[in-house]
Amino acid sequence: MPDAAVPARNPTRAVRIGRTTIGGGHPIAVQSMCATKTSDVEATVRQVLDLERAGADIVRIAVDGARDVQALPAIRARTRANLSIDLQENYRLAAEVAPYVDKIRYNPGHLHHHERTKPLRDKVGFLAEVAAKHDCALRVGVNCGSIDPDKAGRFGGDSVAEMVTSALEHCALLDGLGFLRYCVSLKDSDPMKVIDANRRFASERQDVPLHLGVTEAGLPPDGVIKTRVAFEQLISRGIGDTIRVSLTLPNDRKGDEIAAGRQILDDIARGRFRSVPENLGKRLNIISCPSCSRVENEAFVELAEKVRDVTAYARDHSITIAVMGCRVNGPGETDDADLGLWCAPTHVNLKRKSETIGTFRYDEVLTRLTAELDRLIASRRPA
Asked: Of 100, 178, 269, 330, which cross-links 76 as Cys (Cβ 3.0–4.6 Å)?
């Protein structure tokens, strides 16, 4: 589904993803991710079709193990959607999933942790070989919360430099292997860092298509505002070839991500830019991950909404609270928040920066959260 005419874009190469092509002057593609368990074929197919009807050009699903892999042939047989697969924790599964999908996303930080004695070039080479054999594109998905440890700490606390360096390294590896059918994403929960990272990367590699997104943007409407800020600043500069609006939503409202993305693109194309609130980043900032198949308890979405409501009294304080839904991203991506909650199947881990305060039931964690929030506010008051 094409978008309205947007400002002139960087001359990135064209990368085909199934029946959609990004870059090379093609319309900016809009995508989303299923929140269902991939092993549940009926639920996943239903959500893929719902997202297609909402206007998704690409639909991403996650594969974490054998049951998810076994479900893929049945999912593929029932939809012609352009499917992207998310390989977080086991890059070797690429060989098993590639025959049924159109794009494979891997995370350089997670790739580092597997088969540590194996050279990085060999691991990337395996992915490139599998993708080429099965007519798949690749996405190098760099995420603020899971940077390759070899990059962490090398740039004097400049986390954006860590992200960009990691992305450039993997581009060079893929180029050296002769595999050019790839795009890159550099995501953070802070829209300002997303803008900075993508501008820096684009200045170095104007040829590489970019997937834009603010990870863990949170609940609407704030999550849409954060994402809009980043997209307006980047797309108006010609940066961006595909987008995702990552919102914390119930399963039956995942199509709202597509609607939000289309609306932002249409507004940019028509010159309708929303003013950026003056105190963006200087008030209470609640970040929460988009609901996806890795969420280990669906009560996570309701908890995120309750966190927003019970902390509203602190809206004028520059405090970040992170609410994460799974063990994959939860522990690391709450480290930079003033207060963090990452949700396990039966309990919630409450953190103060990287320090774990304790583990609480879903029905008791809010009381402890507000107590910690009050303590934090009091500690920042002038003596």
From this structure: 100
Chain position carrying tokens 């993508």: 198
Q: What is the 3-state secondary structure (H, E, C) of 323-364?
A: EECCCCCHHHHCCCCCEEEEECCCCEEEEECCEEEEEECCCC
**Whole-angstrom Cα distance, residue 222 to residue 309?**
13
CATH number of 285-380: 3.30.413.10
List the CATH code of the domain at 15-269. 3.20.20.20
Dihedral sign (CA 373, 374, 379, 383): positive
* Tokens linked to 316: 């004028």
Predicted confidence (pLDDT) per residue in 54-88, tens digit: 999 999 999 988 999 999 999 999 999 999 999 87
Q: Which residue has the tokens 């309750």?
A: 306
What residue spans in the chain does CATH classification 3.30.413.10 cover? 285-380
| CATH 3.20.20.20 domain range(s) in the chain | 15-269
Cis peptide before 221 (omega within 30 of 0): yes
Q: Which two tokens stand for residue 206?
A: 């104007």
